[in-house]
Specification:
By secondary structure, this protein is α+β, with helices and mostly antiparallel strands. Strands 1, 2, 3, 4 and 5 form a five-stranded mixed beta sheet that branches. Helix 3 runs antiparallel to helix 4. It is elongated, with a radius of gyration of 21 Å. The N and C termini lie far apart (65 Å).
Length: 168
């Protein structure tokens, strides 16, 4: 009986060790780790829609999601005060950090805040339109990275923005 308990303990220890390893997906790059706020579903939806249209896939980036969030916060500030000058100044500050990387879909340099609102990107989380990402398929095909951001407002509404980045 003692021998059986020892063997059983050894087998259970092995099972526990294997169970710990199965949770690892091998992602060691912190830029690829997605928050559990709906971001994985957004990336999956965008890539599925792209595949259905015969377009390339994009890879999530925490770095570019932070840029997307800053741009979304700037856009929400514009919605509150309506200052196009302030919006453009803040936009230039945020995107100056990108260097040669370009935003090709989403809150691009050429997109006015009002046009972004009309395209439903950004928009409230419930009214976001993924089709807006595919209006210019040639621009979509330039993108390699995707940034996803959510910003809750004081009234409880959550806004969402998606930007696609050309990093080459």
């Amino acid at each position: 009986m003692k021998r059986f308990k020892k063997v059983l303990a050894l087998v259970l220890a092995g099972v526990l060790a294997l169970a710990m390893l199965t949770a690892c997906d091998g992602t060691t790059d912190p830029d690829k780790i997605m928050p559990e706020d709906g971001t994985p579903e957004v990336v999956l939806t965008v890539n599925n829609m792209a595949a259905n249209k015969g377009l390339g896939q994009v890879e999530y980036s925490a770095k570019y999601s932070a840029v997307t969030k800053a741009l979304l916060e700037n856009w929400l500030e514009w919605r509150n005060d309506g200052s196009n000058t302030k919006y453009r100044e803040n936009y230039d500050k945020i995107t100056a950090e990108l260097g040669n990387v370009k935003i090709v879909v989403g809150l691009t340099k050429d997109t006015t805040p009002l046009a972004a609102q009309a395209n439903y990107n950004p928009a409230t989380r419930t009214s976001f339109k993924y089709d807006s990402l595919f209006k210019d398929e040639s621009a979509f095909n330039l993108a390699e990275k995707i940034g996803v951001a959510y910003v809750p407002t004081s009234n409880g509404t959550v806004y969402q923005a998606v930007c696609l980045f050309d990093v080459n």
